[in-house]
Amino acid sequence: MSDRSEGGSDGTGQEIEMTVVSYLRSHPEAADTLEGIVSWWLPLQRYALEKARIEAALTRLVDAGVLRRDPLPDGEKLYSLVTDARHTTRGQ
């Protein structure tokens, strides 16, 4: 699926290949141009992966007592620093 001369074997190329295939598995009827893939498919897939990683990190911070998580009326969650942790976290 990759061509070494086009960066397919350097990790970055493989990441792009996996991202495109993942998008197409999630959206089997999708078809687009190079510009569309660059503009829409790759950012959407990357956002979904990063969102999951960010959520996991936030959950760990909540579990550690550094952040609090409050539910909003629409079902979203609001994260903020626990008052006691404001003076104990690094960088503060």
Give unreliable regions as ranges: 1-9
Mean pLDDT: 82
- What best-fitting shape do the alpha-carbon axes yield? elongated
Query: What is the CATH domain class?
Result: Mainly Alpha
In the CATH scheme, what's the topology name? Arc Repressor Mutant, subunit A
Descriptive report:
By secondary structure, this protein is mainly alpha-helical. The chain has one domain: Winged helix-like DNA-binding domain superfamily/Winged helix DNA-binding domain (Arc Repressor Mutant, subunit A), CATH 1.10.10. The chain is built from two helices and two strands. It has a two-stranded antiparallel sheet. Mean pLDDT is 82; it is low at 1-9.
Topology:
Elements: H1 12-26, H2 34-63, E1 67-71, E2 77-81
Antiparallel strand pairs: 1-2
Helix pairs in contact: 1-2
Keywords:
Arc Repressor Mutant, subunit A; 2 strands; 92 residues; mainly alpha
Outline of this structure?
The chain is mainly alpha-helical.
